[in-house]
Write a structure and sequence with these properties.
Number of strands: 0
Oligomer: single chain
Strand content: under 5%
Radius of gyration: 38 Å
């Protein structure tokens, strides 16, 4: 009987000590006495039987979270404390699935970990021009976010996280890019793209990944991404089409590149930039050194067809001038070919006459496009230097054309126009 009485007294003493310990831990936590709290909770949990008590792990997590928020300590130390706190809070939830102590605080300690990794460490590191470190802290904030979201934890005033923290994912991707970690950046940009996230603040995800897939020559991924980008950012359509042009023509030589342009024109009808770029490529090819002694007739026939499509979509100074210049130069080329015929046989004279007629036609074809160039120029309140050059050259072309037609009145008119630019 005495032995039983002694055991009961001993049990009550131990229980009283443990209860007192838990009360002390609670007070340290509520009062923010983190130094004493850390020592007390670590001592408490060092006792094997106490390590089985969920309350001890809760207070370890809560106290360590609070200790980690000391802005005077190094980021690495704060990180270590947060990691310990996170592990402790997860242990508490495992030991007591009803989690009354977390509910009592609206899961505050866990939400504080998220804020700490995101703002206190991540953003602070980023602002300190240390994006690589910021990436690591942002990733840890995402881990906490995932834990909160997957466990459906509720914060103050019923606050709940969405499944994807789009802002934090974006920050992580941006920081990874600035830290020269393109593979990591791609992982996080793809999280946004796979979730069909849109909004102007997220357009970088689509632009960066389009460039990445283009560079890696991953056509399937590139095409899928561009389709999404056009859907979510239709006002940036010209940019996406520009990317498609680059992807299709990158590394492709001439004349093979022109078949690529033909495919794009069929795939993306009614696009000015596509048709204009196609015509410019033709023009450069026709007048390149490598084509000096090659028959360019097919390409010369194709260029006006393509550029007229561009002008029908959007009549610009650049497009009209290029076509006017092409027709004028083509006229000179044909005329020179005629002059090179030195024979006096009937067939030689006939060929020479035919070529001269073709030259006259080409010269006449240049007129409406040169006139369109100067007309558009007149409507521009603040013309660029390139606009001025194109306009002046258009007046010069018109002057030369009417000189060949022996129209003195128009020659004088356009001569004055040319001189007005000098």
């Amino acid at each position: 009987m005495k032995k039983l009485f002694f055991l009961i007294v001993l049990f009550n003493m131990v229980s009283g000590i443990n209860a007192q310990d838990i009360k002390d831990l609670k007070n340290y936590s509520l009062l923010g006495q983190t130094k004493k709290g850390k020592e007390a909770v670590d001592k408490f949990l060092s006792v094997p039987k106490n390590a089985l008590k969920p309350e001890g792990w809760f207070y370890k997590g809560a106290i360590y979270v609070e200790a980690s928020r000391d802005s005077t300590m190094p980021a690495s130390q704060s990180d270590e404390l947060k990691a310990t706190a996170f592990a402790a809070l997860k242990k508490y939830r495992e030991l007591d699935p009803k989690v009354p102590l977390l509910i009592e605080r609206n899961n505050g300690p866990i939400f504080d970990l998220y804020i700490g990794y995101f703002s206190e460490l991540g953003v602070k590191s980023y602002m300190a021009k240390d994006p690589a470190t910021a990436v690591e802290f942002f990733k840890k904030a995402l881990d906490v976010h995932q834990y909160i979201s997957s466990n459906n934890l509720v914060g103050n005033n019923g606050f709940k996280f969405s499944n994807l923290d789009t802002t934090l994912v974006l920050y992580t991707a941006i920081a990874a890019g600035e830290a020269k970690l393109p593979d990591e950046a791609a992982v996080f940009y793809n999280k946004l793209i796979d979730a069909n996230v849109s909004g102007e603040e997220y357009i970088d995800a689509y632009q960066v990944m389009a460039e990445r897939y283009k560079t890696k020559k991953d056509k399937a991924a590139f095409d899928n991404l561009i389709a999404k980008a056009k859907k979510f950012y239709p006002t940036n359509n010209e940019y996406w089409i520009g990317m498609q042009i680059e992807e299709a023509t990158d590394g492709v030589g001439k004349p093979e590149i022109f078949s690529k342009y033909e495919e794009l024109v069929a795939k993306i009808p009614g696009n000015y930039a596509l048709c204009y770029n196609y015509a410019v490529e033709l023009y450069r090819y026709i007048y390149s050194d490598e084509m000096q002694k090659v028959n360019t007739t097919d390409f010369k026939n194709k260029l006006p067809e393509v550029m007229k499509k561009a002008i029908a979509i959007k009549s610009t100074i650049e497009a009209n001038f290029l076509l006017a210049n092409f027709f004028y130069n083509n006229s000179i080329d044909i005329s020179e070919e005629a002059r090179n015929i030195k024979g006096v046989k009937p067939e030689d004279l006939k060929k020479k006459k035919e070529l001269q007629a073709q030259s006259d036609i080409a010269m006449t074809q240049a007129i409406p496009f040169a006139e369109a160039t100067v007309s558009i120029y007149a409507t521009i309140s603040k013309p660029k230097s390139s606009d001025k050059v194109n306009c002046k050259q258009s007046f010069s072309i018109l002057k030369s054309i009417y000189e060949s037609k022996k129209d003195a009145e128009k020659v004088a008119l356009y001569d004055a126009k040319v001189k007005a630019f000098e």
